[in-house]
Amino acid sequence: MTEHRERWVRFHSLPESQRYATNDAERRTILDRHYTVLDELFGGRDVYIMTSTWSNTVEPERRSRLDLRVNPGSALWWSFLSEDDPDPDFVVHTHVYVSWTSWSVGSLDRLLSAVAEDRTANAVIADRRLLRMYHPYDGGADVLAVDTAERDALRERHADWLSKRPSGM
User: Fold this and answer.
1) Who contacts 87 (Cβ-Cβ below 8 Å, separation ≥6)?
2) 28 neighbors 22 (Cβ within 8 angstroms)
3) Which of these, 100, 103, 124, 116, lies nearest to 30 by C-alpha position?
């Protein structure tokens, strides 16, 4: 995120930067924090939901049931070579799937829970113009706001969710 540092902020999903939930209350906290920021970014808007799979071939392999459940109705948007290696067993192609939906709190429970439990990764929620992006990961979310003012307002409203590290990581 160094190229967009002036628009970037990272929020942690649980207090004290705890990475994984150990009970239902913590699982609810994770979803509540995600939905709070997502609603501030995308409330009343349509959003893209992007997820990725990987394969050793240009053609995507059959998608897992989990991937189909976390991004239902998605279609292959883009495939690209992400890891080149002389050994064909280590060549990796990334396949990005995208869907379009009207944003609402609760609509991404499967996706956000799967990410929080490290069962899937590389999900991105974005507005139509790709100006605002929300990238959840197992432990929090990276946000690209429209500008520094929006980023700073988010940081101020959710200061308790920020990393204590100077880098913000």
Assistant:
1) none
2) no
3) 116
* Beta-sheet strand order (sheet of 46-55): 8-12, 140-144, 133-137, 124-127, 46-55, 92-102, 75-83
Averaged in consecutive runs of 10 residues, what is the pLDDT profile of the chain (169 residues)?
81 93 97 97 94 86 86 92 80 92 91 95 94 96 97 97 77
pTM for this prediction: 0.90
Per-residue burial over 21-53, b if 16 or more Cβ lie within 10 Å, else e, is beeeeebebbbebbbbbbebbbeeeebbbbbbb
| CA separation for the pair 51, 66 (Å, rounded) | 11
